[in-house]
Amino acid sequence: MKIFFLFLFVISASVSFAQQHKTENLIVVTLDGMRWQEVFGGADPVLMKDKRFTHDSGTVAALFGSEERTERRRKLFPFLWGTVAVRGQLYGDRLSGSEVNNANPYKFSYPGYNEIFTGYPDSGVNSNDKIKNPNTNVLEFIGKQKGYQGRIAAFTTWDVFPYILNRWRSGIYVNSDVDTLKFNTPALKLINDMQFLEAKPIDVRLDLLTYFAGREYLKAYKPRVLYIAFDETDDFAHEGAYDQYLKSAHAEDGMIGDLWNTIQSMPEYRNKTTLIITSDHGRGDQIKEQWTDHGERILDAGHIWIAVLGPDTKAEGLVKTPAPLYQKQIAPTLAALLGFHFIPDHGTSGPIQSIYH
Ligand SMILES: [Zn+2]
Fold this sequence. Notes:
globular, alpha/beta, 8-stranded mixed β-sheet, binds zinc ion, Alkaline Phosphatase, subunit A
């Protein structure tokens, strides 16, 4: 009898522990080089009027302009401010005591994505070249856990991600740029045809097609972890096209909202999936013209942001942080949301506990 009660106690203890973490699936989305300044402040009133960067100031002002910072950000990112800020958390508004930084000194893409997913700002990862990443990433770590094998997928616009996530070693399904979508569903066949026939204005697959490939894969194959990596914001910023940078950011916010509605309509995901949105690096700001650029020598380029929505994340909106957070904390946080403990290959970094406590 004693053994029976002990058995019951162990079962109820493990059930109550499991209830602390409702997250069973993860959706990660990145907006390449998207500045925290626009995420929290909307369209920059100076850059919007600067003819060097904004061809049609009238249209941009009508779409995204306002005297009020809070109104501008709501117009640019309606999902972030209408849903995530109400039911989830946002980090990185430096004007309100919330800081998130690159720990790596390079402040460009591969080192940033390496830091996000491997939890370590590796000084050996310091170029955007197509080099197979030697570091273990948290997605492949999750893919080795029970119930997650073969159920991790990444859809990316930029064609360096197969190397960053080392698909040859990691076992993650990584579909980038115009990798053929070899899937036998009508939607994925159509997207595959479209990606080979589009004009590629930024020389890689449109973010829109990356998004729909990811969404339709999710609906058909139900991955436990899905990563979608958008790229257009960085490309248009480098071109100095502030209007198109804003329009891409706004469109991506809409796609993220559509993805959230999709998963909340599916029993496999509803109320047991956490969405995390972030960026690989920031861009210049103090020297106004440097908004187009980033990298080691650009002031402010290491300033980033994180947004989270899910069943384990308290509805706190903008979270003030007593000390700066770092990009390297995202990998252990992703693992912790699923109840796993991820230790990077080198160094250590703790999860952001306020995301799931
Ligand atoms: Zn860039």
